[in-house]
Amino acid sequence: TYRIFARSFGCGLTFSEMVTSYGIHFNHKKSCKLTEITDHERPCALQLFGSEPDIMADAAKKVEEQADIIDINMGCPVPKILKAKSGGYLMQDESRVGDIVSKMAKVLKKPLTVKTRIGWDRDNINVIRIAQIAENSGASAITIHGRTVRQGFSGEADYETISRVKKKVGIPVIVSGDIGSSGEAQRVLEITGCDGVMIG
To answer: What is the pLDDT of residue 109?
Structure first.
């Protein structure tokens, strides 16, 4: 329902909530239910999370027909997701990021995108490398929330770091974080030079 309303007000692309790749892989009913998309929500990306490249690739292939885009969540800061070495945890494992993206890209015909944060914490801001790895591994675009994983939703979004990413990769970069009005969205696009804005 939320996605339908967002589309009716002019949203260019909607996203599913995070769906566990393990649930899709093992055909769990609750997980599969979350991948249902109506024509009123399209274009819509299905967002998957997980930590095993082969499981992620299998899940992506299974849901590709329903989706317009497959998106990988590599930014979620929720403790239970981090404990499963998924979401934002992957910011700490650059080689695994490359493995996941490349294996998924190889089995998909539709675009594959990545959603991430600027780093694990303020001492480990590595989103430029993550974005380059994603691009080189087959991702078609990247969305960056301007906080570290450890920040959760505290503090302020760091648009300066995102603007540096935009200069270092050729794929579209979408900015996210602290955007609460159309005026703010325009300001953030001007600051970062990004290709789009994501509203959480």
So the answer is: 98
Torsion over CA of 114, 13, 21 and 149, rounded to 10 degrees?
A: 50
Rounded to an integer, what distance in angstroms lies between the CA atom of residue 188 and that of residue 177? 10
- Separation between Cα atoms, residue 162 and residue 144, nearest integer Å: 7
What is the band of 200 on the pLDDT scale with cuts at 50, 70, 90? Answer: confident
Contacts of 76 (CB under 8 A, 6+ apart): 18, 49, 82, 86, 87, 88
Choosing from 11, 32, 44, 76, which is the catalytic residue? 76
Please say if 44 is a catalytic residue.
Answer: no
> What are the φ and ψ backbone dihedral angles of 24, each rounded to 5 degrees?
-70, -45
CA distance 112 to 62: 14
Using one digit for the tens of pLDDT, what is the confidence trace for 124-137? 999 999 999 999 99
